Amino acid sequence: MFACKKDKPGGSYTLPSTDTTRQVLVVCEGSLGNGNSALTLYLPNKDSVYEDVYKAANGQSLGDVFQSITPIGSNYFLCINNSDKILVINKTDWTLQSSISIPKPRYILPVSEHKAYVSSLFSNKLYTIDPVTMQTTDTIVMPYQNTEGLTLSNDGNSVLVCVWDTANNHLYSVDIATNTPTQSTTLAGYAPQEAFYDKEGKLWVLSGNVTKKKDAALTRIDPVSGNVIKTYQFPTGADVVRPVTNIAKDSIYFIEVNYTGGTQYNGVYRMNINDATLPSQAFVQATAYQYFWGLGVDPLSGNIYVADPKGFVQKGSVYIYSPDGTKTDEFKTSVGPGHIYFKI
């Protein structure tokens, strides 16, 4: 079934235009210190894979630890974490347009034509850039280190900032007009990572850093009153990453990672936004000596894409599941697939 897939790992192939077909872009982190990150392109309608479109278009590698990709205007903005840079590439032909120097960039949130926020690891800084001039425009000091996930508030006036510090159990709001932190919401757990909204307009925040003895937790919040609606505390040892919603935003998927080779707390899990408890069984179970690292839901088909980094020591894979959990396809990627973006 999978043998007919057209895999193009080298740099001599003709790249497709992003304007011609549906695409799945896979952020491949690479292995830390080796400079082998890559952008893998999958064309679901053609069942074709292009393993490293940036290198094919530009004749050079991305750099060290590719963290995230954000579409803004006619370009994609790529955060290359350990190389301290954001690379800007053209959506149509993948060619490099500019490079922006930012210390340890993680994620980008555009809020207007001339303004986007950039989170940064190992510092208490949040940066703003102008996506048109491609210059850094401001630096915002946050109360703790490791600015991480960024979410636009429902009213569009604030950026919700997850600050992934083990001493922090608050979600912060930054006023877009003034770039000033204005308020915070107390969370169920420490080290918040990501925030997102559900079908009912309620805000969810994932927190935790199991390596540093901070258990994972999900907090559901009423964004109008700021009150906590529900707290979900994960078992000690459950390392939770990559929360995403389905198309209807009434279900949440997330990954639990077990790095030790065991199957406990290891796989993709699914829950309804109104469930009383966390799921006890995996929706997609990882096998022994396997763990997942990337997760995405196709906004057209509802199919679930699950990335397997294979320990970051070889090329990875992405497995595709129908909404009922049936595996339907898979394709290979470069090293360390971590985030998945759908262009429709």
From TrEMBL:
Stated name of the protein: YncE family protein
InterPro entries xref list: DUF5074 (IPR031815), Host-pathogen_enzymatic-act (IPR051200), Quino_amine_DH_bsu (IPR011044), WD40/YVTN_repeat-like_dom_sf (IPR015943)
Gene3D superfamilies, sorted: YVTN repeat-like/Quinoprotein amine dehydrogenase (2.130.10.10)
Taxonomy of the source species: Bacteria, Pseudomonadati, Bacteroidota, Chitinophagia, Chitinophagales
